Amino acid sequence: MANVRVVLTADTHLGFDQPSRPRIERRRRGDDFEANFCRVLDHVLHTHPDLLVVAGDVFHTPRPPEALVDRTLGSLAEVAAAGIPVVVLPGNHDRSQLPPSLWLGHPSVHVFDKPRTFVLERGDTTVAIGGLPFSRRIGASAPDLIRATGIGEVAADLRLLAMHQSVDGARVGTHDFQFRPGSEVLRREALPRSLTAVVAGHVHRHQVLANGCSPPVLYPGSIERTSFAEREEPKGFLDISFRRADNGTWQMEHEFHELPTRPMVDVVLPASHSPSRMLEALRLSAAGLPVNAIVRLQPPGGGGEAVLPPAALLREAILPSMNVQFSWELRSAN
Question: 221: alpha, beta or left, given left = phi > 0 and alpha = psi -120 to 50?
């Protein structure tokens, strides 16, 4: 049997809550994302897979700070220099293209800046990986874009497609929303059956879509929680093994490696006409939370009016090791 092992990560969103010139001095979540990204790369360097795939939304903004770009793409070049090919495709947050960098010139770092296919020789196995940058109107254009990669025209033992798209059947959110075919959702039937598997980003919940006659679609999910809609989801990356049997068929196994995440907690502000009493009640509530919690403050319930202290004082009532964010209603009231 021939074996090919792929590490898949996606939606790293580096630069999340990491402004280059912050207006407010407080704990930022950018370090959480960078730390988990480093954990993924440490796993890659210690286990030496045949391929590392970074499936989109590498950065949280299309114009990340130069220092962050240099650290990130330099780290991927280090992986490539260790003999592990790296393929990267830009996502919607990347505006379908990566920032320019000399690190992307490494011969073993392959970028899907347009629909294309890279062919890699791993031992006695030829691996073809096609890919395309994020396309918003994927529903109608998927057949043409996949055809444009050339994945169906190259000779290969193993065929993979990398993309950053929503596929019908994928689920997200606390209400378990399921994507249905539409202008921005790819129909699974549009995926060529000649593919061994599809490795994908864009959907932040880890899941594997493997029912039906279409090739399996593997989502590793994001490496950290980017919104409260993800507060119940584990975060991590995938280690995927493909084994070819004597009859030529490929068997796939995958292992989800969970990464550390910070708890997300909603706190409803107490109704009070006294800002000082409200702050004291908030301090008592925060004392019972995990010290590294991400706290979302909600306006007072019960329908009564309340005098809200300034946002700066509300932040001071929470431990500095926590992150605080406000609901839309509270932000508009301040």
Answer: left
